[in-house]
Design brief:
The chain is built from 7 helices and no strands. The longest helix has 23 residues. The chain starts with a helix and ends with a helix. The protein folds into 2 domains: 78 residues, Orthogonal Bundle (Rna Polymerase Sigma Factor, Chain: A), CATH 1.10.1740; 67 residues, Arc Repressor Mutant, subunit A (Orthogonal Bundle).
Amino acid sequence: MMEKEQFCECIRKQEVSMYRYALGVLRNPADAEDAVGETVLKAYVHLAQLKNPERFRSWIMSILVNVTRTMLAGRNRVEMPGDMGQYEQTSSREHKELWYLVMELPEEFRDAVILYYYDGFRTKEISKMLGVSEGTIKSRLNRARKKLKTALEDVQ
């Protein structure tokens, strides 16, 4: 079983990815912070269920996916924060425009894009996290790429 110090180190390594995903889904900085905090707490309480510490990254993200889904189900409206610039990974204008466009995608596309392109998960891992087939994830990524390409062409 994973020790407390090892757990904390693993959380530190994943906190940016966790927050980015939560923000992408919940679209509210305070809610994203709450989701990450709740995820860390749930993971720590259920740490004994993690049989293979090498799978920590996908395990913690699966918990986060469930936490964000629960939070979304508990509210009627999702609001876009006014200044998304503070959450972006790069400062180039093109990347900012792309981030805004990703945030405008329908939820199922947005989830797949963030997990695949921003956090580097494989389609198989994403399919397990989201509870859908790998083919569905590949299809969502393909459709998201087409939507983003069209949107980028419209911007230019």
